[in-house]
Design a protein that fits this description.
10 helices, TIM Barrel, single chain, alpha/beta, about 475 residues, binds zinc ion, elongated, about 20% helix, Jelly Rolls
């Protein structure tokens, strides 16, 4: 029996491996193949252009011949991609021009009208825009790679941001302005959604494309937005729309803030009702668990807190961002206390997200990498994972570190992006969060989504006694 089981497992593994090579399969890191390596199934060239431009050879799509574009028309996401990462391995012959379109739409002839082109041009002289240019939006004048060598183009579109990296190095980081200003003659070069297309440029060009894989991304969310610095709810909603994002509007609730009881919580909910935003509660200090009823807390989409306010070992209320309240005479002892307080919060308090994670007071912040030892990181990560608490990747403080995020991902943690904006113009950018997501290869499954009614931490875990 055991041998039969083993044989069956063996067959399963072989089958999985062969499926992974085919178009449409999802690997464990969330990448889906769009090209099967042997045929143009799922791809369609423009019908009224030269039919001979595209062929498949040695596992690659070869673009060589008169102008034509090869559009992705396969079943993945119905070939309609809004936010995504795309990776394509590309190789050029000398003097070649090509490109990769996104947010485009099939058309039977001519250069695609809709969407953007990421340029492929290492040595084609007549066009000064070189490889990785986001054509006419952010141009690159010297190619980062050479002819005859495979390189990996990595295009990320998330919210209003487009990044292009080549062999792991960011080359282009472009943000669409509000209102958008497409180049003259290209009015449909606007962020939207659409499919991909490969370019066959001219008979003198030979470009190879292989390993074409996409990772669809969820709508970008800033879960940590405060209405402060004059920012109104109306402005925040408008900003989220033009940034192609969603915001979670968080009210600070607890000692020292206006919201200290259920009636005040209800006023917050009334103010946000009916708006296309998440309603969030930022639980302040450690006293919050005694100030509000579980029923009122559960009316919010999610609750978050940080470990920046606590009572230190000498019984003093400490707020880590206020230097006068922080006394660090023994750094190691301070760190051990901070880790213990953080683990205590994660264990005891019914929260969805741990925000401003691993924040250190200014007096020791420069020693972050040595003070946050592997062992300390793992204690916090273990408590977050065990309690189902997502970890914020905070773009204002650029926390936690990449190393922490990698360890947390490996341990099964989930992540939420937040800016914790200081005013009206620093919300929603999420540059650090997006960078970490790309570097640490986060997928949809790694990202926090608010829990439905009945599943919220305050309903499952209750408030501490
Ligand atoms: Zn906050």
């Amino acid at each position: 029996m055991r041998r039969i089981m083993a044989a069956t497992v063996g067959v399963g593994v072989t089958l999985l491996a062969s499926i992974a090579l085919a178009g449409g399969a999802v690997d464990e890191r969330g990448w889906i193949n769009l090209f099967d390596g042997t045929s143009l199934e799922g791809w369609k060239p423009a019908e009224r252009e030269d039919p001979g431009t595209f062929s498949v050879r040695d596992g690659a799509i070869v673009a060589h011949g008169r102008r034509n574009h090869l559009f992705c028309v396969g079943p993945v996401e119905n070939a309609n991609f809004r936010d995504f990462e795309l990776k394509v391995d590309v190789k050029t012959e000398p003097g070649s021009n090509g490109g990769i379109y996104f947010h485009t739409k099939y058309q039977d002839r001519n250069w695609p009208d809709k969407g953007f082109e990421v340029q492929v041009n290492n040595s084609y002289r007549r066009d000064p825009r070189k490889t990785a240019s986001l054509y006419k939006m952010e141009d690159v004048d010297a190619s980062p790679v050479q002819d005859g060598e495979w390189f990996t183009m990595h295009v990320t579109v998330w919210g209003k941001h487009v990044t292009v990296s080549v062999n792991g190095e960011d080359v282009v980081d472009w943000t669409e302005r509000q209102p958008p200003s497409p180049p003259s003659g290209m009015p449909r070069r606007l962020l939207d959604s659409g499919t991909f297309a490969l370019q066959g440029h001219d008979p003198g060009s030979t470009v190879y494309y292989r390993n074409i894989r996409v990772k669809p991304l969820p709508v970008l969310v800033d879960y940590h937005v405060h209405l402060k610095g004059g920012l109104t709810l109306e402005q925040a909603v408008e900003m989220a729309n033009w940034r192609r994002m969603k915001f979670g509007i968080a009210e600070n609730c607890g000692v020292g803030f206006p919201t200290t009881n259920d009636q005040a919580l209800q006023r917050v909910l009334d103010r946000l009702a009916g708006q296309p935003v998440y309603q969030a509660m930022q639980a302040e200090g450690r006293e919050w668990v005694k100030m509000f009823s579980p029923e009122m807390i559960a009316k919010f989409d999610y609750v978050f807190t940080d470990s920046m306010t606590f009572t230190d070992q000498r019984g003093r209320r400490t707020r880590l961002w206020i230097p006068q309240e922080v006394e660090v005479d023994d750094k190691q002892a301070f760190m051990d206390m901070l880790v213990a307080r953080t683990v205590g919060i994660l264990n005891d308090e019914p929260i969805d997200i741990y925000v401003n994670p691993t924040f250190l007071p200014v007096s020791i912040a420069s020693e972050y990498d040595t003070l946050w030892t592997d062992e300390r990181m793992d204690r916090v990560i273990e408590a977050a994972v065990r309690n189902g608490v997502a970890i914020e990747i905070n773009s204002r403080y650029k926390l936690p570190s990449e190393k922490f995020i990698r360890r947390a991902k490996a341990a099964g943690a989930r992540f939420a992006f937040g800016t914790n904006n200081g005013g009206s113009d620093d919300l929603g950018d999420l540059a650090y969060s997006r960078l970490m997501a790309r570097r640490c290869d986060l997928t949809r499954d790694d990202l926090f989504v608010p829990k439905p009614d009945g599943q919220k931490p305050v309903q499952k875990k209750g408030l501490p006694k």
